[in-house]
Amino acid sequence: MHAAVYAGIDPPVVTAGTQVIRHEGWYQLINPTVKGGAVNEVVLSLLKEGDVDKKVDETIALYRQHQLSFTWCIGPMSSPKKLEEKISALATSSWEFSGMAIDCNSDIATSNALQTEVVDSHNFVDFLSVTTEGWDLKDRTSTEERLKRMVTHPQYRCFIARNGDQVIGSAATILKEGHGYLIGGVVLKDYRGKGAYRSLIQARVEDLQRTGYPFAVTQARSATAVPILEKLGFQNLFSARIYCLA
Question: What's the CA gap between 172 and 158, in Å, rounded?
C-alpha cells in the first residue's frame, strides 16, 4: 500500500527544467517550459486543516504566474477532506485512478502475447517514435532527451511491443527498493484491444521476477487500465482522483 501511494514521488528522471518542490507532507513539480499537467502536478499534499486555503491559493498562483495548467492528486496521498472539497470546486475536469499491486511470481501469461523487447541503443528510435505518437507529445526534443536518460539510467527498464515489423506500444518500469513501479504503458490507437498492453504488463512483471523483485505496483486509470489489470491478477489497493486546474 505504501509503495503504491508514494509511487510517483522522486522519479529518477524528470523532464529537463523541472523544479521539484518538496518538504514534509508535500511533493510538487513545476516546469514553465511544458504547458500541461503531465509535468506540472501536485503529487503529495498532506496539510493541516487550517493551512488548506492559503496553500491552495499559493499553489494556484504559482502556476498561473507561469500561465500553466496543472494537476492535483487527491486520495490517500492528500488530506484533509477539506482539501478535496476545495480542489474539486476549482477543477476543470478530473478522472479516477487506482493504486494496484501484483506478486511477481503470479502467472499472468496472456493468450495472445505479442513480441516485446527491452529497449537499448539499437531500438531506441522505435521507442522514441511510438512513445511520442502514443502519448501525443508535442516537444520531441525534450521527449528525446528524457527518454534517452531513462533508457540509460540503471533504475529504468524500458520496453516496446511489436506486431510483426510494426512497433505498436511502449512502457517502462522504475526499479525501486524492494519493488518495481510500472509506468507509461501506451499502445497506438489503431492497435488497441489486440493484446499489446497485456503483453507489456507480462513482460515487465516477468522481468522483475527474473531479477528478484517480489512485487510490482502501478497507478492505473480506472476507466481503461484497471479492468485489464484486475483480470491479470492485480490487487486494487485504493482509489484516488486527478483534478485538472487551469
Answer: 4
